[in-house]
């Protein structure tokens, strides 16, 4: 594949800035078609982003001979259906996170990719962002000594600004999203833990619904014991008072600590050799580094930046942490 010619299924709010424009900004990549069930919105998106073609039917976009790669940016309830259709057509897929509604669905997607020998990447795009690559480098360079444990807090108020605003708040419908804001935000964090610390030995968690007007669990806790012996402790609560909001991951080592947010720009390192900070400029399109790598992978120039099997492990953690309710 000399040029990756993309078709987007689900050109909603998440694609306006975070991902959509990046497909025309990385080398050997071009966005040629978009699909949305609402014809007026599909046409409007295509015109505003200078996309040559637009569709209201996903299968028509998949069957377009000019399209040779598919980006699926619909809500999670449709990820499996469209991924399987694209794979059946022999077209590689870049699918949004969370990979699907649950791990069993994600496993079916993975199996289809393997059986049909069609490439599949999951959009855990923080892996390729400079801030999180720097954390990985610090860990590899033993900046804080042998890692002991990780403490993560994601505490938000009922009204928060971390997710894209949509006319229909589908993230709060578990049949569409899989499980509320936890399923929307936690995949970023859990995937990074797997990216940094490797295979899991065991995991356990609890979840509960404390907000009476909610359909989804809004307090989740989870623990992971990695095969290396490192332990992760995570707390996600989406009903705290605004002044108590927190977004913090702290990695404790034998000789120090690395602290950073999941939605921020600064890493702080405190170690026996002193204090240091690393600040990063915000990215115009947060998925651009990942999309650049996906294009290279589809062209056979590099390894898969986030394989389906890796994303299945993240889905298993989501399922595990929310299976035991109070």
Write structural notes for this entry:
- The chain has 326 residues and is an alpha/beta fold.
- The protein has 2 domains: 4-124 and 286-305, NAD(P)-binding Rossmann-like Domain (Rossmann fold, 3-Layer(aba) Sandwich), CATH 3.40.50.720; 130-282, Dihydrodipicolinate Reductase, domain 2, CATH 3.30.360.10.
- Helices cover 31% and strands 26% of the residues.
- It has 9 helices and 14 strands.
- It has helices spanning 39-48, 58-63, 79-88, 103-116, 130-140, 174-177, 180-197, 288-298, 308-323; strands at 4-9, 29-35, 53-55, 69-72, 93-95, 120-122, 147-155, 200-208, 219-226, 231-237, 246-253, 256-260, 266-271, 274-279.
- The chain has an 8-stranded mixed sheet with strand order 8-9-10-7-11-12-13-14, covered by helices on one side. It has a 6-stranded parallel sheet with strand order 3-2-1-4-5-6, sandwiched between helices.
- Helix 3 runs parallel beside helix 4, helix 4 packs antiparallel against helix 9 and helix 7 crosses helix 9.
- The mean pLDDT is 95.
């Amino acid at each position: 594949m000399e040029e990756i010619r993309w078709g987007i299924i689900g050109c909603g709010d998440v694609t306006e800035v975070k991902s959509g424009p990046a497909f025309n900004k990385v080398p050997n990549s071009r966005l040629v078609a978009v699909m949305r069930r609402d014809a007026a919105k599909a046409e409007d998106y295509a015109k505003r982003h200078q996309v040559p073609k637009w569709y209201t039917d996903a299968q028509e976009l998949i069957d377009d001979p000019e399209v040779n790669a598919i980006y699926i940016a619909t809500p999670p309830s449709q990820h499996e259906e469209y991924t399987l259709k694209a794979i059946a057509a022999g077209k590689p897929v870049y699918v949004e996170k969370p990979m699907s509604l649950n791990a069993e669905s994600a496993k079916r997607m993975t199996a289809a990719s393997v059986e049909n020998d069609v490439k599949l990447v999951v959009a855990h795009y923080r892996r390729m962002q400079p801030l999180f690559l720097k954390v990985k480098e610090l860990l590899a360079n033993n900046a804080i000594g042998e890692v002991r444990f990780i403490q993560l807090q994601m505490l938000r108020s009922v009204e928060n600004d971390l997710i894209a605003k949509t006319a229909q708040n589908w993230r709060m419908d578990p049949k569409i999203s899989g499980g509320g804001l936890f399923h929307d935000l936690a995949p970023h964090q859990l995937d990074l833990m797997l990216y940094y610390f490797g295979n899991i030995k065991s995991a356990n968690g609890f979840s509960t619904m404390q907000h009476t007007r909610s359909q989804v669990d809004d307090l989740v806790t989870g623990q992971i014991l990695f095969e290396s012996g490192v332990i992760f402790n995570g707390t996600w609560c989406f009903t705290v008072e605004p002044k108590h909001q927190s977004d913090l991951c702290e990695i404790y080592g034998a000789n120090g600590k690395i602290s950073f947010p999941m939605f921020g720009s600064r890493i702080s390192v405190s170690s026996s050799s002193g204090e240091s900070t690393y600040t990063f400029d915000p990215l115009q399109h947060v998925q651009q580094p990942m999309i650049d790598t996906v294009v290279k992978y589809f062209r056979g120039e590099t390894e898969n930046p986030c394989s389906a099997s890796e994303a299945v492990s993240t889905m298993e953690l989501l399922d595990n942490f929310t299976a035991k309710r109070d």
